[in-house]
Amino acid sequence: MDFLQPVTWAEALEAKAAHPDAVPIAGGTDVMVGLNFGHLRPALLLDLTRVADLRDWAVTDGAVRLGAGVSYARVISELGDRLPGLAMASRTIGSPQIRNRGTVAGNLATASPAGDAHPALLAAGAEVEVASVRGTRRIPIDDFYTGVKRNAMDGDELITAVHVVPPSGPQQYSKIGTRNAMVISVAAFGLALHPDRRAVGTGIGSAAPTPRRAPAAEEFLAGELDSSGLWESRAELPEATIARFGELVAAAAAPIDDVRGSARYRVHALSVMARRALTWAWADHRSATQEA
Amino acid sequence: MSTPTRTPTGAPEHLTGPGSGGVGDDAQRPDGVLKVRGEFAYGSDLWMEDMLWGVTLRSPHPYARIRSIDTSAALATPGVSAVLTSDDVPGEKVYGLELADQPVLALDVVRYQGEPVALVAADHPETARLAAARIHVDYDVLEPVTDARTALGHPTWNQVHDSTAEVTELSRESAHLHPEGNLVRHLKVRTGDPAPTADVVVVGEYEVGMQDQAFLGPEAGLAVPAEDGGVELHVATQWLHVDQKQICSALALPPEQVRLTLAGVGGAFGGREDLSMHVHACLLALRTGRPVKMSYNREESFFGHVHRHPATMRYEHGATRDGELVYVKAAIYFDGGAYASSTPAVVGNGGTMGIGPYVVPNVHVDCYGAYTNNPPCGAMRGFGSVQTAFAYESQMDALAAELGMDPVELRCRNAMEEGSATPTGQVIDSPAPVAELLRRLEAMPLPAASGDGEVDLRDMPGGVSNTTHGEGVRRGVGYAVAYKNVAFSEGYDDHSTARVRLEVVGGEPTATVHTAAAEVGQGLVTVEQQIARTELGVERVVVHPKDTSVGSAGSTSASRQTYVTGGAVKAACAKVREQVVARAERLVGRTVPDLRLAGGAVVSDSEDITVPLADLLGDDVLEETLEWRHRPTEAIDPETGQGFAHVQYAFSAHRAVVDVDTELGLVKVVEMACTQDVGKAINPQAVVGQIQGGTAQGLGLAVMEEILIKDGKVRNPSFTDYLIPTILDMPPMRIEVLEYADPHAPYGLRGVGEAPNISSGPAVLAAIRAATGLPLTRVPVRPEHITGT
Ligand SMILES: Cc1cc2nc3c(=O)[nH]c(=O)nc-3n(C[C@H](O)[C@H](O)[C@H](O)COP(=O)(O)OP(=O)(O)OC[C@H]3O[C@@H](n4cnc5c(N)ncnc54)[C@H](O)[C@@H]3O)c2cc1C
């Protein structure tokens, strides 16, 4: 196994173009597991950790541009206010060691249905910036996940950054695991309220072949909030609305039975998480007005 | 009876004597600093310049006939030195702890997924693995038998109220997996009225999943061929001499030519009592003439050692209206998997202690161990008692509910005490403070209710995964008490050997303790030092490396080493001390009745005598070796189970407090409290450590730890999906250690390691039941069991 270690982004892209089979490695928290289990036997590893450009985040055009090399630990400590949903998701990931090494870009490239960044990115409406020697493009998060552990990147492309607009409203993230830390999700749910756009964002994890949104639930809730003037009045949400939202989120799932949980449980858990997340988010929305 | 000493919350100052490092002190571990610094060499760190790497090819099928094995492509791989199959085993081709039924390498049939079929030695582990993948094995795949009762032809229970606890017909037995049939052992306990009746009867069926020892240092060892045609094996194990015996038999070599040294052991919990890579590495080393290292990775480790027996159990308890137990009937099935391992002894424990530490006049227990095509099961901490405790303690709660009685009250009412008879007719002749353990737990303050003040997610079920801020959360409290035999039972000649040397090194009197007792992390090396310090009055005690150049110490299991090897070290020290005192008396020229050893000298309290050992011994070396035995036990009657089966019992009780998110089925254990009688805490800090660790392992089985098997295949052979508790799952503990001396044991001590592993899980289960109001008859409890989805 050979090892390439570019120090500039241009070199990295050239290396990837020259060796499309090279496996990029960032935090290595997926790659090294694959190597250890013998599931992954690449001829070439492409180490991206020396590329300084990837390690930073910045706010450009109103959005946070999160470099591909930024660890979860930094998302939590530096971006908790700007990207609350993603920070909450990051907090649920692995252990301190994993959060120190692991990256959102690595999570995206792996594109596991259980990846914890995905529901938060889906709810927030993120965009993935990918690049190759051919140029740069932005892939809306909705188009990024194409199948079980598959994504929309081409063989010569690398992830440069993720763009997420800081929210105008509250966000929540919940994940079920069968132990209280360091656990792969059995089901996960991300929620973002976008009062500025009068929209609702959702994301579901571990309950379908890919991470996905629950569009019917989003439309239903946005419609209810609109028609009852709740965005502005910030009155209490009717119980029936909360319950219906939970049902619609659960209905968007297409889970399977596996060692981590049953399909029925996943559907049930999603409805509970969705109801609770909405309750908390709405309480935040209401208290935001009192502060204002 | 001595007054008990107590330790609050894991801080054992109250038990600790003056810090001379003797018996009763929190003496420092000799290996502690190295381990904390990451400098301790474990089995997987063994290394020699010219060594080869050995790997194992394992069966992918739970049950198959081997038509042929073609090793030619593997042998032709550059870098490969040897490829071996069962044809290359020179001696006995099968081995086993109690019954020799397990092939060193598969013969004509494989009986479980992961059974070793062939071995490869190569100059690089990757080369060896690639070569192993090139071995072509032609299998005729057979239908596996994956249920213990099916294997025995016993009907499955589907109705709780079908009152046939006794199952006799063996009409629909599956295909025989072994020539003698699928029954490994059937133990019967019969006492009192065979057809008892009672005012109140509760019947329950329970199931315990397969737990893994999950020791953190996978199996590893290094075999070095010796000039005398023999082999030296450095291996992480639990019992050097039983390994040696089985290796000799497989290699057809005498014990002098098979020399074992203990490598650094990263945990054991029973999982290293059976052989793993031992014979394999020796075979490869002898064939190639080179040192051979074998070191499993985590996934292979799941296939490389036995697990805890899964169990299905049916219990019927009868009691009077005022809560006196009248009878217990139980049918207990242990799935032993493909080979016997220690199933007979596990059945022995499960059967003889299967109704818990209660006095019951009429008992009818049938305990079975069966062969199936599931992974072999054998020793694991708690050994047959962990499974039954879930059942009998659940029954006690069910009975209490039926009677409208407090569960602790019901237990205390029926609790064993000193002088009680066990269902096997054994009168308990040392303290048995069962009721006191429970009452002390009850008296401890309860933790504050959740949701008081600001929500800290880490205190919530689900933790920082943010699934509840208190919604759906209900608290439950549960109690359980358990007992467990210490040391080997049923007439086994259970001894240990100690060699103790006293000499002056660099002017300082120095004792050397040499035993073959495996240090597996529990701290026996510290205990050996402490005993020698106390008995010989010296400070410097060297623990000789553990090897087979001294006699057997027996197994590091069954909570027995501090008792049995501790007893041997104590006795050997006493003999050395006799020699020293005799010398001193010769020097003084007369008999002084109260001569003793202290502070590196022979001293008398009545007279002004102080003879420094340095002067007394000069260049002489005093050495004694002896075998030490606890009082004998006896085999039990095969029809009634009656007999003096167990030398000592350990008692512990737990109170668990849990918060359950009843809507999502997630559990947060808020606090575990434990009371345990240890007779005498030789090292209080180590005692508390054992209680904490045992509690965590029991909690793990109650809420998460299970090897999931489908059609004989393991679905989660990694720590990704075999979950063990993290720091956010294991709560703070309250611990009270009682010291009621057992007059039959050295220093009055009781084995410590297993009891807390037994009572912890049932207490957690009881607490979850209390929180949810659900019957919950299976562990581990999964979220689905609570939500009903
Ligand atoms: C103990 C443990 C616990 C874990 N717990 C969780 C958890 O709770 N939740 C969760 O979601 N995940 C978890 N993971 C998985 C892993 O940590 C995450 O998926 C993480 O986001 C991977 O990031 P990384 O930087 O380590 O990726 P790497 O392992 O370096 O790479 C992952 C994949 O991304 C590719 N890649 C990396 N960077 C780029 C790039 N810039 N462009 C293109 N491709 C790239 C790699 O080639 C590889 O395919 C856990 C892993 C471990 C070992």
TrEMBL record, chain A:
InterPro entries: CO_DH_flav_C, CO_DH_flav_C_dom_sf, Diverse_Substr_Oxidored, FAD-bd_PCMH, FAD-bd_PCMH-like_sf, FAD-bd_PCMH_sub1, FAD-bd_PCMH_sub2, Mopterin_DH_FAD-bd. Residues 1-169 form the FAD-binding PCMH-type domain. Keywords: FAD, Flavoprotein, Oxidoreductase. The keyword Flavoprotein applies. GO terms for molecular function: FAD binding; oxidoreductase activity. Pfam families: CO_deh_flav_C, FAD_binding_5. This is Carbon monoxide dehydrogenase.
Automatic annotation (TrEMBL), chain B:
Gene3D superfamilies: Aldehyde oxidase/xanthine dehydrogenase, a/b hammerhead, Aldehyde oxidase/xanthine dehydrogenase, molybdopterin binding domain. Pfam families: Ald_Xan_dh_C (PF01315), MoCoBD_1 (PF02738), MoCoBD_2 (PF20256). Residues 1-30 are annotated as: Disordered. InterPro entries: Ald_Oxase/Xan_DH_a/b, Ald_Oxase/Xan_DH_a/b_sf, Ald_Oxase/xanthine_DH-like, AldOxase/xan_DH_MoCoBD1, AldOxase/xan_DH_MoCoBD2, AldOxase/xan_DH_Mopterin-bd_sf, Xanthine_dehydrogenase_dsu. Residues 37-143 form the Aldehyde oxidase/xanthine dehydrogenase a/b hammerhead domain. GO terms for molecular function: iron ion binding; oxidoreductase activity. PANTHER family: XANTHINE DEHYDROGENASE, XANTHINE DEHYDROGENASE SUBUNIT D-RELATED. This is Carbon monoxide dehydrogenase. It comes from Modestobacter caceresii. The lineage of its organism: Bacteria, Bacillati, Actinomycetota, Actinomycetes, Geodermatophilales.
